[in-house]
Design a protein that fits this description.
Layout lengths: L3 H12 L18 E6 L8 E8 L5 H20 L8 E7 L25 E2 L12 E2 L3 H9 L7 E6 L6 E3 L7 E5 L4 H13 L7 E6 L44 H7 L5 H5 L5 E4 L1 E8 L15 H11 L18 E3 L6 E4 L21 E8 L4 E8 L4 E4 L2 E3 L2 E8 L5 E7 L7 E3 L1 E6 L2 E3 L3
Parallel strand pairs: 2-3, 2-6, 6-8, 9-11
Antiparallel strand pairs: 1-3, 4-5, 7-8, 10-11, 12-20, 13-19, 14-18, 14-21, 15-16, 15-19, 17-18, 21-22
Helix pairs in contact: 2-4
This protein binds zinc ion.
Length: 449
């Protein structure tokens, strides 16, 4: 008869059939590592720094060439997918050499195990044993350690997994800017999808679970809050739909193919795809939660991003390209931000906080820092105002109110990269915050042209 202990052991072993490399990536392995910047479009503080790290690539010439080819393809795929823009990124690569080619497939019978440096596997055997499209690693920090080999300033680490099967994943934690993408089937769709999760508050637009999304006191801790994301909502009243400005008043809501065809029997499939409305299903649930369009790259491969996702991604890239038409306008005249209660509005601060003369020759404060004050006028109604650095770490939180102006002051390291984050308390009826932004550096007003 099996004792409880052996039963537990048997279950544990069944759940984790593949051995892990858990020792830290040490410099002994540098001899087997090729690291290089791949494409630099500007200073790190002014770009999304993406590091491609390979897993499951052996030291064979075939694998070496394959990784190089896939990095090039990945950059093309990403930057050819609207609205991504090449000039908004810097790309790096880290070629790690694993003992074996491929990735683990622990859910297969019998399990397939490969000895790879970053332990990537199809399916999270502990948390999501039913989803073998999720490319997981139990050792995410090894992937970040690998990215550290080429730059500490990464914003997104993409692990390219040497496998032929479809799959990918994005870590939800702000502190683990990690995505995995299989180079197999669907690579060109999975990559821009996973990167979107990291760059903007975008959730899945597909439903897998045939039930109803319900946020209650029991699930609140475990289920994401739709209000934190730009592309899903539980709101059905027109005035409360976050993307209502994009919805034609005539569009039936909830929006269905049947309702659109009832309204216009001649409507084409393409026209249906282009309708922004209130389509049921998203965030993994089929019901009681809504997305903007019938299809979107956040829902299904082979489709472009929907209009709401495009706006969200464009916002994440605003000010990062020299040819960006927004750059031609004074920075503080572009204060229009999509507002949604519970959503974090993250505004990249101008990199010119520390750019070369004439601004660069400003006197600096104690310790070589710049005292930066930012005034928002009129004051947006926010629950939180804070400054975060490129790693998402809070530098300072809380502001002061004078008349109708909200101010926040922080000490900026020259060439540091910072974001202003606002968490709305309430939004104007237009759905947008509109305010002007004034900068003061070491007490002197500064304008960013
Ligand atoms: Zn979308």
């Amino acid at each position: 008869m099996m004792t409880a202990l052996t039963l537990f052991t048997a279950l544990f072993m069944a759940a984790n059939p593949c051995e892990l490399n858990e020792d830290s990536l040490d410099y002994d392995q540098l001899a087997y590592v090729v690291i290089a910047p791949f494409e630099i479009n500007g200073p790190s503080l002014d770009k999304w720094d993406v590091v491609f790290v390979g897993d499951g690539f052996s030291d064979s010439e075939v694998d070496e060439n394959l990784f190089a080819k896939k990095v090039e393809e990945a950059i093309d795929v990403l930057t050819d997918t609207r609205p991504y823009r090449r000039c908004a990124f810097n790309f790096y690569w880290v070629r790690l050499v694993s003992a074996e080619s491929g990735a683990d497939h622990p859910l297969e019978d019998p399990p397939v195990c490969r000895n790879t440096l970053l332990n990537t596997e199809f399916g999270d055997v502990d948390e999501h044993p039913d989803d073998d499209r999720f490319v997981y690693t139990p050792t995410p920090f090894r992937c970040l350690d690998a990215a550290d080999l080429v730059t500490y300033d990464y914003d997104i680490v993409v692990v390219l997994v040497n496998d032929t099967e479809y799959g990918g994943g994005a870590w939800p934690e702000e502190s683990i800017p990690l995505t995995t993408v299989s180079i197999g089937d669907g690579f060109d769709h999975v990559l821009p999808h996973e990167v979107a999760h990291r760059m903007a508050p975008l959730h899945e637009e597909y439903g897998d679970w045939p039930g109803c999304y319900e946020l209650n006191e029991y699930t609140e801790l475990e289920v994401d809050n739709p209000a934190d994301f730009d592309n899903i909502t539980t709101e059905t009243e027109y005035g409360s739909i976050p993307w209502k400005d994009l919805i034609d008043l005539e569009t039936p809501r909830p929006t269905t193919v049947e309702a659109l065809e009832d309204q216009n029997p001649d409507i084409t499939e393409l026209e249906i795809d282009n309708v922004v409305g209130l389509w049921e299903g998203g965030m993994g649930y089929d019901h009681c939660i809504y997305r903007p369009q019938r299809n979107c790259l956040m829902r299904q491969e082979h489709y472009p991003f929907c209009e709401v996702c495009k706006i969200s991604l464009r916002k994440a890239m605003a000010f990062l390209c020299p040819q960006d038409p927004l750059i031609g306008a004074p920075w503080d005249e572009i204060g229009r931000y999509f507002c949604r209660v519970g959503t974090i509005i993250r505004i990249p601060l101008p990199y010119c906080l520390s750019c070369p003369p004439p601004l660069g020759d400003r006197p600096t404060g104690p310790g070589g820092t710049l005292t930066v004050r930012i005034d928002l006028d009129p004051r947006p109604h926010v629950r939180v105002i804070r400054i975060v650095n490129a790693l998402g770490e809070t530098i300072v939180s809380g502001g002061t109110i004078t008349d109708d102006t909200l101010s926040i002051v922080f000490e900026a390291v020259p060439f540091g990269r910072y974001y202003l984050e606002l968490v709305p308390l309430e939004c104007p009826p237009t759905g947008y915050f509109e305010f002007s932004v004034s900068f003061y550096i070491n007490g002197n007003p500064v304008s960013f042209m």
